[in-house]
């Protein structure tokens, strides 16, 4: 059974917000473009002017492997002058963007940003020198099966999940909560998946007892090449529920 990924056919987009959240939309994949949308208020330091004209820039730097060549592109506003705003929500006033074509042989996407201008000063947004690193989740993980099924002889159910991954994934867990029972404490649980090596990849499984008739919302955390990643299904997470039909066992509410 294949689970349904949200916005899989949409062009990939990575949004960097003023309050330092990073939100992804669509499936990031080698050989496809990705739009970088960046809130200029993340780097508000250099705002030099030259004869009343903007004399500062914010550039995105990127590469597709640890030892790959570095490229850069200037992020630009498509709504005129970049203005300050009062809140942290994404909005036209301070949003700048650029498109990046991902190399078909890319291993991952690493991003970092520089603000400079007429003063010559440089200011960086680079996750404290580590750079922002994005893997291609659709190549790393595949949810083979997820279900909520009655537990025989008891007024409870089981939440079961099977996931396939490539060999680079070294740890995998599922964070889930029962969204139709607010009395549970803690409301969110993290369950490690146990692996079995297979030819060309790994197979992971986990199972947990949940209330009868549970509706379970979940996302996946994993480690690849020693770096942690989070699959939130473009921020919508996955959902499964008791008695769902096979082609609806995982989706989005």
Write a structural description.
- The protein is mainly beta and 253 residues long.
- Strands 6, 7, 9, 10 and 11 form a five-stranded antiparallel sheet that branches. Strands 14, 15, 18, 19 and 20 form a five-stranded antiparallel sheet that branches. A four-stranded mixed sheet has the order 2-1-3-8, with no helix packed on it.
- It is elongated and about 80 Å long.
- The relative contact order is 0.17.
- The mean pLDDT is 89.
- The chain has one helix and 20 strands.
- It has two domains: 123 residues, Sandwich (Immunoglobulin-like); 110 residues, Immunoglobulin-like, CATH 2.60.40.2440.
- Helices cover 2% and strands 49% of the residues.
- A hairpin with a 5-residue loop joins β1 and β2.
